[in-house]
Amino acid sequence: MRDLEYVAAVTATTGGGGALWLGGIAVPHRRLVLRWLRRQALRLADGHGRDLPPASPWLRARGVRQITFHGSDAPEGLRAWAGDEGRQDEALGALESGRPTLLTVVDPAVGLRLTLAGWPVGPDRPLATPVPHKEPTTQGRDLTPCCSAPP
Questions:
Q1: Are 30 and 138 in contact (CB under 8 A)?
Q2: In what order do the strands lie in the sheet with 5-13?
Q3: In a 10 Å sphere around its CB, with 0-12 CB exposed, 13-18 middle and 19+ buried, how is residue 115 labelled?
Q4: Burial 63-80 (b: 16+ CB within 10 A, else e)
Q5: pTM beyond cutoff 0.85
Q6: I need a surface site. Which of 57, 70, 105, 129 has the fewest CB within 10 A?
């Protein structure tokens, strides 16, 4: 293992508090974390209501498991994040400075929260998934794209 690597994970949390691991990856560079997270966001959004597109063949990276959304808010939020260069730059900046990057989208119809996270790991950094605050932020900006503003 190098001095610093990066990991990414996608998890879902239900309204009852149960968590489901959908997939993850460890890579040697922050840009690969962001690339994987963007790819998974688009795969999940595009798989809304049908089978997921095939996983990317690069680095033998596995794709995340499929999840069913009950509304269009979460898939649209995933697409918006993946296509926003400014937000991608913010995520990359967070990783570069040693902080995690988090994105949480909400399916309000069933209280499902889908979190995409990436963070650095190394000899002095934990491998465990960072626990997001009530509303995850990166550089002080709310990254929860949903239909209404946070309270």
A1: no
A2: 19-27, 5-13, 112-121, 101-107
A3: buried
A4: bbeebebebebbbbbbbe
A5: no
A6: 57
Instruction: Give the pLDDT confidence score for residue 151 in this predicted structure.
Output: 30
Mean pLDDT in the chain?
A: 76
Residues of the chain with pLDDT under 70: 1-4, 48-61, 123-151
* C-alpha–C-alpha distance, residues 5 and 121, integer Å: 5
Phi-psi region of 112 (alpha: psi -120 to 50; beta: other; left: phi over 0): beta
Supply 66's token pair.
Answer: 């499929």
Q: What is the pLDDT of residues 88-105, one digit of tens each?
A: 999 999 999 999 999 999
